[in-house]
Design brief:
It is built from seven helices and seven strands; from the N terminus they run βαβαβαβαβαβααβ. Strands 1-2-3-4-5-6-7 form a seven-stranded parallel beta sheet.
Length: about 180
């Protein structure tokens, strides 16, 4: 399995240069007003210009309306839109088709049952990102304390496919808190 690294929350030229030097593949720009790493369109345009040809540009959005997405894609020209909100598979497919930009859908996972949502996105997005979510109940923390491998995540997310290699949706895995990088 090939590993591709995404560094998200880029807010400076120095951060971009460091990500490139470290061998990252993707650079993320956050467009969410509640994030301390939120960037405005003009700042994002300058950062994207610095990334272009060096990193794949990922614009992280959450439940953004069509007018906002149109303005963002026209101004920043990202290589990917990362949907980090409550976007349904239908909405994700619509965004991918309307804006002609590949889509990454982030799915929060706090327990193995959460992986079942991945199957509905298989034909709607280009990549899935399983993101550690806060446990919903005390028992969920115990379940997530066991590391999940990429292979076991794929088997749980797409049980009808049978094997890791048969899954047609490319995956991007991001290690956080309960997902130690060494187990991916």
């Amino acid at each position: 399995m090939t590993v591709a690294v995404k560094i998200c929350g880029m807010t400076s030229a120095d951060a971009i240069d460091a990500a490139v030097s470290a061998g990252a593949t993707y650079g993320g720009l956050v467009f969410h007003p509640n994030s301390p790493r939120n960037v405005g369109l003009e700042q994002a345009r300058a950062l994207a210009d610095r990334m272009r040809g060096r990193l794949q540009i990922v614009a992280l959005i959450a439940d953004m309306d069509d007018a906002g997405i149109a303005n963002l894609t026209r101004t920043v020209r990202p290589d990917f839109l990362q949907l980090h909100g409550s976007e349904s598979a239908r909405r994700a497919a619509y965004i991918r088709a309307k804006f002609d930009v590949p889509v990454i859908k982030a799915l929060p996972v706090s327990e193995p049952a959460d992986l079942s949502a991945a199957a509905e996105y298989e034909d709607a997005v280009d990549m899935l990102m399983f993101d550690a979510a806060r446990p919903r109940a005390p028992s969920a923390a115990a379940v997530m304390a066991r590391p999940l491998t990429g292979k076991s995540l794929a088997a749980k997310a797409f049980p009808s496919r049978g094997s890791w290699r048969a899954v047609s949706v490319r995956k991007m895995w991001r290690a956080r808190s309960n997902f130690p990088a060494r187990n991916w």
